[in-house]
Specification:
The structure is a homodimer. By secondary structure, chain A is an alpha+beta fold. The first copy, chain A, is built from 13 helices and 20 strands. In chain A, helix 1 (5-26) packs across helix 3. The longest helix of chain A is centred in the first third of the chain and has 22 residues, at 5-26. The first copy, chain A, starts with a helix and ends in a 5-residue tail after the last helix. The relative contact order of chain A is 0.19. The interface between A and B is large, with 79 and 79 residues. Bound molecules: zinc ion (4 copies). One zinc ion binds at residues 101, 131, 166, 443-444 of chain A. One zinc ion is lined by residues 101, 131, 166, 443-444 of chain A.
């Protein structure tokens, strides 16, 4: 096993300067969604590039061109970097993003969102602290601690840090595809630190994400909105038909009612089932995050499976109907229902679409309505599942055990991180999600924070991971 | 029968000055819904009062106090007037309103909305032309024509013209109740001209209106909106429950599914049924007004019955769900469905409410959801049906036949005109709805108009009605 004490000691000694690095980064309001903040996003990219260069990395700022649909704006560059070029070492490609969600003090922040503010429990508040500046700087901290301790980095490190993640990662997919056999050519494995522990105490490794197919159903009839007094009872009402069709999609217990959908789902094996009881999670955790006791399932195992490895169907809303407070006696002429299906192995999007379209059209036909129904896919994103037994994961697991004294939970996520699949498909290498922050970090909300422990021990974890992954037997 | 030729001739001679009177009225943008237009509403009231006084009427401008919820605004006065005070004559109370709907050229008007513009087909375009300034001025025209022709008005005329009709008739109900035994004490019958012919050629008398009970159903669960990736499948979703409950209310063919509702509906008698075949209306008229062929029923009789004498249930929309264009993967925490039931004899509001509440709660209970449902009545307004055989109606029918050479259709309306019921209940007298405008007048829309024929012959009709109602045998 690697000897990590000198590295760990150096991290502890540098912890104040690492926090200072995070303070400087949080102070740059690199909000990708706001046009007027675009110069700050560039400034944040420059900050990262300068820090990496000062540490001795080879850095390139790669332009992505104009922003589609906002051609007056230049997309922020992808900051790619290489640290080490030893053919005898493995090469690890790490990803993170340096842009952040919008934040205004008046949204309800207790502190200035772009001033890192540390309370007496070591909670470091600030926009981007946990999403994703802390994890990105973690990699820089690892390099610095090795240098200062006179230690060699056990791998060649490739960095890919983007500046548009919070606004759809504009341009990134094409970039990764193009560089897979160029700048990223010698990557042996990929590591992404941009998600969160399931709870607050126990680290986890994440090996799966659900996909998402998002649909619209429109029902139209009259040429314009009608008055319900004048026409109620004499015309087919689009809203009646839409509500009836939507009610056939999913029941109150979360069961998808579209025939054939569940047949596409990979059966649960005994082996997979056995992963769930050990996971550090409870029904209280669910109720806390819901703010209510309206969970569907009785056990944590079934709850986590429902979130991670089974599909779900949510109805998001209706466009075109009366949606304001108060009362309006309108018969809307055209209404569009929106719903999405979270997908899991082995649901292929074309199969899902066919089942959805056929079923909805058949249900509508049963109504004998003279209205017109249309249903279409707005967008889809595929699920992702990696093998948690890959050497990339077993190395990370050993690193967690070394740093935190506990084996990590092997988790999946219900949502999607599309870049994960892009890296896997473009490089053909295993991708590991190795989170730094905890479930209470409030990414995307007010009072986002990163605990000092998660940042400093997290930096140790990233370094330890590089040591273990450098020597882990390649089983796959 | 009354000798009306001198009156009719005088109306024809004065027609240009009557149109000029309408031009002056349309030029005053008396929009009751816009705070900044309130001085114009007062100006319009003053115009009416001055014109009535110039004709020799006794006029009072009755203040209604501050506008509830907008205490910086004074409500426009009710203009009440008396013309004639002969105990030997019958007294007829007429109602109209001098405020109008908002209108902006840029909404799509082909002409300036507050400039009366007459095209070569005699269509007089302008906001308020048909709703309701034309009919209101019709009564003034009747007085003037009688005076100029040296004819005596055959009845005492009481006027009640309000300035807040398009904004909920604030304050009017209390005023009518209070004046029923004072200013309106000697009224023998009431006539309201504020609705429209069923088509464009044949006049009608209207003897019924549906009521409206407007309901909200809320379903709530989590403490805040959730991300469907994270929580989809593990929590009861309020939107799923609401859509399911809404789908149980009415089917695509317009059948109300709430048990017991149809049992409250007055059975169709053979006599009532026999009124429908003769009514001048066709399925083409329905399709034209819908702008589509999405009518439910095959015949005009069944269509008109569905609109006039059977209840209907319309779902208007959902508050709290995602209602914008595009895609958002939200699970809304609380959603409020809005629907209303158009009511008919003999549906009493408390009975309807009980059936609605009990049914919705029972349907929700079947779902075994941990979410919370609430259902309540937002507001209700009662249906109204008068006897079309009352002497008030038979007099009006004779007047129509005299002026237009055709017997009027006896119609009802699917919507409500709440002041009708108020007058009936407060005075205890028969109320007649005697429309002046036609179905194509586009009240409340862009390019509102009143045909010259409807205005001039309509003025003759109002005058003829006063003559017939003065001598019609009192059968009830
Ligand atoms: Zn992120
Ligand atoms: Zn984020
Ligand atoms: Zn009106
Ligand atoms: Zn109106």
């Amino acid at each position: 096993a690697p000897q990590l004490e000198p590295f760990f000691k150096q991290v502890d000694q540098l912890s104040d300067s690492f926090i200072d690095r995070l303070r400087k980064a949080v102070a740059i309001p690199s909000v990708s969604a706001q046009d007027e903040s675009r110069p700050d996003v560039f400034r944040m990219g420059q900050f990262l590039a300068s820090e990496l260069e000062a540490l001795g990395a080879h850095v390139e700022q790669r332009p992505l061109g104009k922003q589609p649909g906002k051609e007056h704006l230049e997309l922020p560059p992808v900051i790619v970097a290489r640290y080490g070029n030893d053919p005898a070492k493995r090469t690890i490609l790490v990803y993170g993003h340096y842009d952040v969600q919008p934040a205004l003090k008046e949204d309800g922040w207790a502190t200035e969102p772009f001033e890192l503010t540390i309370d007496d429990k070591g909670r470091m508040y600030g926009r981007g602290s946990t999403d994703d500046k802390g994890p990105v700087l973690g990699w820089l901290n690892v390099i610095e601690a090795h240098k200062k301790a006179g230690l060699e980095l056990p791998v060649n490190l490739l960095c890919c840090f983007e500046g548009m993640e919070e606004y759809g990662s504009e341009g990134l997919d094409d970039f990764i595809q193009a560089e897979a056999q160029k700048f990223f050519k010698d990557a042996d494995a990929v590591c992404i630190s941009d998600n969160y522990w399931l709870g607050t105490e126990k680290p986890c490794l994440t090996y799966g994400l659900r996909g998402c197919n998002y649909y619209s159903i429109s029902v139209s009839g009259p040429a314009q909105d009608l008055h319900s007094g004048v026409f109620g009872g004499s015309a087919h009402e689009p809203m009646t038909d839409l509500v009836t069709v939507l009610s056939k999609l999913v029941d109150s217990q979360g069961n998808i009612l579209i025939p054939g959908i569940m047949d596409l789902v990979e059966p649960l094996t005994e082996e997979e089932k056995s992963l769930y009881p050990g996971i550090s999670y409870s029904m209280d955790n669910l109720h806390e995050s819901l703010g209510s006791e309206t969970g569907i399932h009785a056990t944590k195992e079934r709850t986590l499976m429902a979130r991670w490895r089974y599909p779900s169907l949510s109805i998001h809303g209706i466009e075109g109907a009366f949606s304001a407070p108060g009362a309006k006696t309108v018969i809307p002429a055209k209404v569009i229902g929106k719903f999405s299906i979270r997908t899991v192995p082995n649901m292929e999007s074309p199969d899902v679409n066919k089942l959805v379209f056929d079923y909805i059209k058949a249900e509508f036909a049963k109504l004998n309505s003279k209205n017109t129904l249309d249903v279409w896919l707005q967008h889809d994103g595929k699920w992702w599942v990696a093998s948690p037994k890959h050497w990339n994961f077993s190395a990370a697991s050993k690193a967690v055990t070394q740093v935190f004294g506990v084996e990590p939970d092997m988790t999946r996520e219900g949502g999607s991180i599309p870049v994960t699949l892009t890296f896997e498909q473009a490089t053909g290498k295993n991708v590991l999600l190795l989170p730094m922050g905890s479930s209470t970090d409030a990414a995307h909300s007010i009072n986002e924070k990163l605990d000092k422990r998660n940042y400093i021990e997290g930096t140790k974890l990233l370094g330890a991971y590089l040591h273990y992954v450098a020597e882990e037997p390649m089983n796959a």
